[in-house]
Write a structure and sequence with these properties.
By secondary structure, the chain is α/β, with parallel strands linked by helices. The N and C termini lie far apart (51 Å). Strand 5, helix 7 and strand 6 form a beta-alpha-beta unit. The longest helix has 23 residues. The chain has 14 helices and twelve strands. The protein is globular, with a radius of gyration of 21 Å.
Length: 395
């Protein structure tokens, strides 16, 4: 059977390797502490769940849902943005419901890129960003993120010949996996860069609310209030712990929203109306759930950092996201996948290898703080024990 050549760029990645390693460890009797996936273990808000329960009893909600049937959700998204960022969006032309922001970031390249066009992507970065570019026949130009630059891309260092072929720049701050932050001034520079070179500016923004010590992550639309070049993607997976419900939305430039809607129309209708009802309840309802959850992740961050410090592993303190981005000891600096595979095989602790997020991620691992503090401390103790044993064996 002859399959499409584009699949060659989508072959198995390190996350499928880790999935296999976890399955083997589980099969050998290991209790898995899975810190490799950023899937929140907290519950969605009760008022959102109740809205979904109510919809289930309404048979009229069980059919297909087309764009015009989503207006209440789109209005809630527009109001949510205005409340947070002072930006008034048109719910009909500047807001689009999505089956999670991953759907939007993966489909947008189909609306923006022609075969051979270049997309400027963060390295390390979220894997679906490159996947969508490959599906569209585009080329990826990685922007290496380095700690000495605050894990921000150096746009002025992109070669002129690459800029000339570039059609989209994808940013995502607070950043997954490094947990780095981007100030509004950087976003303003990015907007200016994209306007100058006629490049679409994409911002993946799932961690808009998951920040600590009073920090408020800026929206890219604050740097582009006229929505001249930017489109932003938000997911309810993090702020409202609705990852499994697959609900998100895109906001921004009207032409980009319309183009993405055109692609989406060929692929799906929308999710079940009850899920949108739940999302409306989450966006419009009491927001104390967000702050309570942030307090949980804040405490988990501090307890895990403390346990790592006691183990002799110095890790920067992030001010946002649910992750710790940890540099591996020198003997593992070019073997993050091997480290994670052996770690889960021997201890049951699953981390995400930095190489899975791009070449510049090699030498790091990502801890997702998606278990209780006690379990996280146990995971660190198991990891420290593994390192001591590995160091002894190599000495």
């Amino acid at each position: 059977m002859r399959l499409a050549n584009r699949l060659a760029k989508l072959q198995s990645n390190v996350f499928s390797v880790m999935d296999e390693a976890k399955a083997l460890a589980r099969g050998s009797g290991k209790t898995i502490i899975d810190l490799s996936l950023g899937s929140s273990d907290l519950s969605a808000p009760e008022h959102a769940l109740q809205a979904i329960r109510t919809a289930l009893a309404d048979a009229s909600s069980h059919g297909y849902l087309l764009f015009h049937g989503t207006r209440s959700f789109r209005e809630a998204c527009a109001d949510w943005y205005e409340l947070r960022y002072g930006l008034r969006l048109d719910p009909d032309s500047e807001v689009l419901p999505l089956i999670g922001s991953q759907e939007g970031t993966a489909h947008l390249p189909l609306a923006v890129l022609n075969p051979g066009d270049v997309a400027l992507l963060l390295d390390p970065g979220y894997p679906s960003h490159s996947g969508g570019v490959h599906l569209a026949g585009g080329q990826v130009y990685p922007l290496s993120l380095l700690p000495e630059n605050g894990f921000l891309p150096q746009l002025e260092r992109i070669p002129a010949e690459v800029v000339a072929q570039s059609r989209m720049l994808v940013l995502s701050y607070p950043h997954n996996p490094t947990a780095a932050l981007a100030p509004l001034e950087f976003f303003e520079q990015a907007v200016s860069f994209c306007r100058t070179h006629d490049i679409v500016l994409v911002h993946d923004f799932p961690y808009a609310d998951m920040a600590f010590e009073g920090y408020r992550p800026p929206s890219i639309l604050q740097a582009d209030p006229g929505r001249t070049v930017a489109i932003e993607f938000f997911s309810l997976s993090k702020s409202y712990h609705m990852g499994g419900f697959r609900i998100g939305f895109a906001v921004g430039n009207r032409a980009l929203v319309a183009a993405l809607r055109q692609v989406k129309t060929c692929v799906d209708f929308n999710q079940y109306r009850g899920i949108l009802d739940g999302a409306v309840a989450a966006l419009r309802g009491p927001q104390d759930h967000v702050q309570i959850a942030n307090s949980v992740f804040h405490s988990r961050r501090d307890r895990t950092l403390g346990a790592l410090a006691r183990a002799g592993w110095s890790v920067p303190t992030p001010q946002a996201t649910m992750y710790l981005w940890a540099a591996l000891p020198p003997q593992w600096s070019d073997r993050s996948v091997e480290f994670c595979v052996r770690l889960v095989e021997q201890t049951g602790v699953a981390l995400a290898p930095g190489a899975g997020f791009g070449r510049a991620g090699e030498g790091y691992v990502r801890f997702a703080l998606v278990h209780t503090e006690e379990v996280l401390e146990d995971a660190v103790e198991r990891t420290a024990s593994f390192l001591r044993t590995a160091n002894h064996q190599s000495s």
